[in-house]
Write a structure and sequence with these properties.
The chain is mainly beta and 158 residues long. The chain has helices at residues 44-47, 121-128, and strands at residues 21-26, 35-41, 53-59, 67-72, 96-102, 105-112, 116-119, 134-141, 152-157. It has two helices and nine strands, in the order E-E-H-E-E-E-E-E-H-E-E. It has a four-stranded antiparallel sheet, with no helix packed on it. Strand 1 and strand 2 form a beta hairpin.
Length: 158
């Protein structure tokens, strides 16, 4: 466990400083001496789309046998309100990259503009030779400044 209290401060990087190589000097509280200058580019993590949550998968009941994968998006800004039905988008568009994984190999990639994707039975058969009882997926929100967000990974029963 790590306790983060009021002593932890943001670096205060402005949006126009994101990605710039800046020099920093670190001082430990109660310790003598300084460390630095240390140079690094900061601010990118704050712009990275968060991983989706609540990944789930069901077989389509229409007889097609397709697997419908769905999830819930998360947001970095203004996402804590309990009033609205959905949180505001952090990006100027809603887009996700969905990957179906077999071991360490990505066997199918799709990009969608909503938090749901249908894995057609024909594609599943082409990728695996038949219907699977579980699917390993990796889903990332696509961003404008940071192309791929933090991945959500899961093996879902179908």
């Amino acid at each position: 466990m790590v306790l983060l209290d009021g002593a932890v401060k943001s670096l205060g990087i402005r949006s126009d400083e994101t990605g710039l190589r800046l020099n920093w000097i670190a001082e430990a509280a109660g310790a003598a001496g300084k460390a630095g200058p240390l140079a690094f580019e900061g601010g990118w993590r704050a712009l990275t789309p968060l991983s989706p949550v609540h990944l789930r998968c069901i077989r389509n009941g229409s007889g097609s046998g397709s697997a419908v994968v769905s999830w819930t998006r998360r947001g970095r800004d203004n996402a804590d309100s309990w009033i609205g039905t959905d949180i505001p988008l952090d990006e100027p568009f809603e887009r996700y990259r969905v990957e179906i994984i077999d071991g360490a190999t990505v066997v199918r990639v799709a990009e969608v503009d909503r938090s749901e994707w249908t894995y057609l039975q024909a594609d599943e058969t082409a990728d695996f030779g038949g219907r699977q009882v579980s699917l390993s997926v990796r889903i990332r929100q696509v961003g404008e400044r940071i192309p791929l967000g933090i991945p959500a990974k899961a093996t879902l029963s179908v």
